[in-house]
Write a structure and sequence with these properties.
Elements lengths: L11 E6 L12 H8 L5 E4 L10 H14 L3 E6 L5 H13 L4 E5 L16 H11 L3 E6 L10 H14 L3 E4 L5 H13 L6 E5 L5 H11 L5 H10 L3 H21 L4 E5 L4 H17 L4
Helix pairs in contact: 4-5, 8-9, 9-10
The structure holds flavin-adenine dinucleotide (FAD).
Length: about 290
């Protein structure tokens, strides 16, 4: 199933999971997948760590399991800066052999001490490369608050348009906590000629460590309503978790009401949180307008 076709049918609802650390057996994530499959998302995307140290074996194993054991459409992330063309060829061949037909084509984050392979500089080059090599559906990443390395949002959107023109059939956003940021971005993207579906990436924040990591790694701005919650409940993990879930639900309801193309939930491999949110929004999701 090519994910791009889903957007014509209904508002898409999808999850992201990540493979366990290299030192942890892959089986540890299977319980999470088992629990997530019950929630019947349209697809589940599987991250692939930047750095090029592996060849995406765990990402492939999880994507395969999703497809073969649970009948869920997988999307494999593929960050390219640390891979040579030969390595990408091998990964694509494995995806093809295992029926993985949806790829999130990424540049990948720079990793201290790891040199880029220099075969791919930007994600758009990977999009073109994949398109020329197989019948894959290719998605791209986008940044409502501007990618941290871009000079400004207009420049970032200009390059995003190149990625879409290269063949990205839909986009998934970086997480954000203020929906107006997303609406403004979507408007500016459309004005720049980007008309592919854009899924909103929502991260339910349920613990303090996660918040600190997000601010440092993706530079997400935190609205006052959000920081108040964190300050009030930081020493009460259960209350912080429940407030984080409620905040994400509030964001999703507003996005669905507005006719968003899809919601991509960063589950952080936490099925409890994914379940709470899915149960709260599923009725609204079914009734959401297709714009
Ligand atoms: P690009 O689209 O290449 O953009 C990167 C920067 O280059 C931007 O500033 C852009 O404006 C600029 N740019 C683009 N084209 C040009 C050009 N022609 N000339 C000059 N500048 C240009 N990382 C991982 O390692 N693994 C993952 O699994 C992963 N999953 C992700 C999932 C999502 C939904 C998102 C939003 C991000 C994910 N990332 C992942 C992080 C991502 O790899 C980083 O944010 C990375 O820094 C940028 O990747 P990109 O694909 O958006 O890059």
């Amino acid at each position: 199933m090519k994910i791009k076709n889903l957007f014509h049918q209904h508002t898409v609802f999808s999850f992201e999971v990540f493979p366990p650390k290299k030192t942890t057996p892959i089986e540890t994530v299977y319980d999470t997948l088992e629990a997530l499959q019950d929630l019947k998302p349209d697809f589940i995307s599987v991250t692939l760590g930047a750095g090029g140290s592996g060849n995406g074996e765990n990402t492939l194993a999880i994507a395969r399991r999703l497809r073969e054991n649970y009948g869920i459409t997988p999307m494999a992330h593929l960050p390219c800066i640390h891979y040579t063309k030969e390595q990408i060829d091998r990964i694509l061949a494995q995806f093809q052999e295992n029926g993985i037909e949806n790829i999130l084509a990424l540049r990948g984050d720079r990793v201290e001490g790891v040199k880029p392979a220099n075969d791919f500089i930007h994600a758009a080059e990977l999009v073109t490369y994949i398109r020329e090599r197989g019948d894959f559906d290719i998605a791209g990443a986008c940044y409502p608050e501007c990618h941290p390395e871009a000079a400004n949002l207009d420049t970032d959107i200009r390059y995003l348009k190149e990625k879409v023109d290269a063949g990205a059939s839909h986009l998934i956003t970086q997480l954000f906590f203020e929906n107006n940021t997303f609406y403004d971005f979507r408007y500016r993207a459309a004005r720049a000629g980007i008309h592919v579906p854009i899924e909103a990436g929502i991260m339910p924040v349920t613990n303090r460590k996660q918040i600190e990591r997000m601010v440092t790694t993706c530079g997400a701005s935190l609205p006052r309503k959000f920081t108040k919650i964190v300050q009030r409940f930081e020493n009460n993990p259960e209350a912080l978790r429940d407030a984080g879930i409620a905040y994400a639900i509030d964001q999703i309801v507003d996005l669905l009401t507005d006719g968003v193309d899809g919601i991509h939930l960063y589950t952080m491999n936490n099925p409890y949180v994914a379940r709470k949110i899915t149960e709260a929004v599923s009725g609204i999701l079914k009734a959401a307008p297709l714009c």
